[in-house]
Design a protein that fits this description.
The protein has a single domain (1-306), classed as Replication Fork Single-Stranded Dna Binding Protein (Replication Fork Single-Stranded DNA Binding Protein). The protein is 26% helix and 19% strand. The protein is built from 8 helices and 9 strands. The protein has helices spanning 5-10, 16-27, 93-103, 107-114, 155-165, 214-222, 239-250, 296-305, and strands at residues 37-38, 48-54, 65-75, 78-83, 126-137, 148-153, 186-193, 196-198, 203-204. Strands 1, 2, 3, 4, 5, 6, 7, 8 and 9 form a 9-stranded mixed β-sheet that branches. The two termini are 30 Å apart.
Length: 306
């Protein structure tokens, strides 16, 4: 944990191995946008671009990102939209139910878990990462440039981060994308592919310093947001609370009576990011993590559900 800017700079060249180790471990949503979150916008064709810089761990945080799981699906009693307790390695009643449904082998039960496409994402876990970023270029909103935001993204972008830290091919130099001095900007290139956002063309630029002025870098570092707070234990319902709500949503108990549980679905389906999940296949287990970097409408509902 970096408690001073001087320590951060001193550890600059030594932190890559630690980050690679943490990202490898993670192989095996914040509540509400209060203006601190950034999301890349696209044009009417579903295409867009931006340049961002991932930032080091914020003061008090150990690593510069957090991983979050969530569920967003509709049942007889309304919408279940909430963080998944497996984020903090605790038991989740939705995941338990998913395992039971998948184990029946019935196509209709598997469809409840895996979903049937972008209109029905199913009850499976949705995977997101959150990191602090500096917006270098945002053609859709120039006022964002030069500002620090929290950026929520999916597995495809995280794969690019991992590839940068631990390149697959011999001769490719590893870089720490989260480093102020030796990191690199990420040029996001967003395309509309079959109704889904696709980030495959996004690339890291050549390594460069964010600034040669340490005072400027220190101000950026001190303006970052704590990410560990997003997955603090008090952000999660107890197993009993989550189970009671799940029962209401699925009709296993009395119908929901709260505004939270009776939230309506969006009139049109949200456009998921990166890749279409399609229908369930036999080899896909119910605990499989979804790698979409979208479902933004569902996340907005989650934010409102608080």
């Amino acid at each position: 944990m970096s408690n001073s800017f001087a320590q951060l700079k001193k550890a600059s060249k030594k932190s890559l191995n630690t980050l690679v180790e943490q990202s490898e471990k993670m192989k095996s949503g914040p509540r509400g946008d209060d203006g601190t979150e950034w999301y890349p916008k696209v044009d009417k064709s579903g295409n867009g671009t931006a340049v961002i810089r991932f930032l080091p761990a914020a003061p008090g945080d150990e690593i510069p990102w957090v991983r979050m799981f969530s569920h967003a699906f509709k049942g007889k009693g309304g919408w279940y939209i909430d963080l998944c307790a497996t984020t903090i390695e605790a038991d989740c009643p939705v995941c338990t139910r998913n395992t039971e449904l998948w184990g029946t082998g019935k196509p209709e039960d598997k469809a409840v878990v895996q979903g049937t496409g972008k209109d029905n994402p199913g009850a499976k876990r949705q995977l997101k990462y959150v990191a602090n970023v500096l917006i270098i270029s945002d053609p859709s909103d120039k006022s964002n440039e030069g500002r620090v935001f929290k950026y929520k993204f999916g597995q495809k972008i995280f794969d690019k981060v991992q590839d940068a830290m631990a390149p697959e091919f011999e001769g490719d130099e590893p870089i720490n994308p989260f480093d102020f001095w030796a990191g690199a900007n990420l040029r996001l290139k967003i395309r509309n592919l079959d109704g889904y956002r696709n980030y495959n063309s996004s690339v890291f630029e050549a390594p460069s310093a964010v600034s040669e002025d340490d005072e400027e870098l220190k101000k950026i570092w001190e303006s970052q947001y704590s990410l560990s707070e997003l997955i603090a234990p008090d952000k999660f319902k107890t197993f009993a609370e989550a189970k009671a709500r799940l029962n209401r949503i699925t009709g296993a108990a009395a119908p929901a009576t709260t505004v939270e549980d009776q939230m309506q679905a969006p009139e049109s389906s949200p456009m998921a990011d990166e890749t279409a999940t399609g229908t369930a296949v036999e080899e896909t287990p119910p605990w499989s993590d979804d790698d979409d970097d979208g479902m933004k409408a569902f996340q907005e509902l989650a934010d409102q559900a608080g």
